[in-house]
Design a protein that fits this description.
heterodimer; A: mainly alpha; two-stranded antiparallel ribbon; B: six-stranded mixed sheet; four-stranded antiparallel sheet; 10 helices; 10 strands
Amino acid sequence: MNSIEKNLLELNRIENLQQRSHWMNRLHPLGKLLLSVLYIFTVVSFDKYKVTPLILMSVYLIFGFIIGELSFREGIYRVRLVLPLVIFVGILNPFFDKRVLFYLGTFAVTGGMVSMLTLMLKGFYAVLSSYILIATTSIEDICYALRCVHVPKTVVLVIMLIYRYFDVMAKEADRIMTAYTLRAPSQKGIHYKAWGTLVGQWLLRSMDRAEMVYESMLLRGFNGDFKMRRKEVKKIDVLYPLFWIIVFIIIRHF
Amino acid sequence: MHTGVCGEILKIEHLSFGYEKGEKVLTDISFEAHDKESIGIIGSNGIGKSTLMKLLVGLYLNYEGRLEVAGHTMDKKNLNHIREHVGYVFQDSDSQLFLSTVEDDVAFGPQNYGLSAEDVEKRVTSALQRVHIEALRKKQTYKLSGGEKKLAAIATILAMEPDIIIMDEPSVALDPRNRKNLIGILNEIDALKLITSHDLDFVMDTCERTILIDDGKIIADGKTDEILRDKELLEYHGLELPLRFGGC
């Protein structure tokens, strides 16, 4: 299996998660989107030396993963590309902030160490909360929620089309790679002489496919606006975010 | 969406078209089609069958001649109205299905035409029932088999309740069972059907009228049974007799 195929499979797995009939998936997307945004804002707003409340904020993620029946290991694996960034973002703090805050036995814990930890936790939480949102909400639903908060339809349309055309381009790349590999079995990667032709072919074929998808949309009445089915708001759609907002307020202020 | 138009709902007079100036892909095409007719458009590769079909849904508007669909002249002004009455099933179902689930994709057309949520729901259910894929309603489109994708693609069109259904090579890549299933479904559809195909046995099973095109021109237009039995005519234009009549 080549790397493109693996990535496509990965994308399909996330779509599988999004299409589950779990109650968290059925929650109104607007509530989930706003909750995720609010969670990230709350987490980011903590003082750089406040570790305890930040650790308490992990309750939302723990709940999301356990009750949402999401695998934590898979979650970490899927956000692996962003994690190094999150880890390295505060790595220089211990060198700049050497003020001793407290001692652990004889070991002096400096402000830089604590702020590095809080920065890492903030990034880590933000990434994982986004993962919970993505794993329980389809791209159509996220776009629906964005429209509910009056994000311009052009922006929403661009997000939707990028997602769809990404799939089209990845599939074309996969086909080309498979065809190439089958006729160059002993070769590692693509020969530099073939790169130009393959990339050119890939773009042309992707454009053709994208055009067909667009024609199919036009022929079914598409006029520049994705009309989505209105989703009913149930009690749970209000109570769930409300519960978490109260929890966030309690952790943030007490 | 049904116009309620009876009789002649497609009228083509001296239609000519070329992608490049001076290079005609279609020349002087004229025919009429009536409500509930089923017409096979046959011909060898690259003679302009798909181009003709795309002209009928207004994907190309720079044609010469006269083209009237559901009582409206094909031009930019009437495009939206015409497309409400014409459904196009692509050869490649992957291009037709672009939303996450079958249900979402089937609902896409009716939603765009401003139907109420209740009506959209009814249309989706009815379309899925007509192609016997109710069980696939919540299934993700990428998980469908080739045959299922074709049926889902047809359902996306049926949900719009068009007067005219255009199908580009519908039997391509289908196994015998799915092919047979598709024939049964097509024969139950109550609309004008225009089917392009190289599978002449498929045309034989689904169309009472056949138009043979070669070199961008209509060569023959008549009863399927007569045209598809004419070995000399078919072979002269790069085709062969259907298998049932001894073709290879």
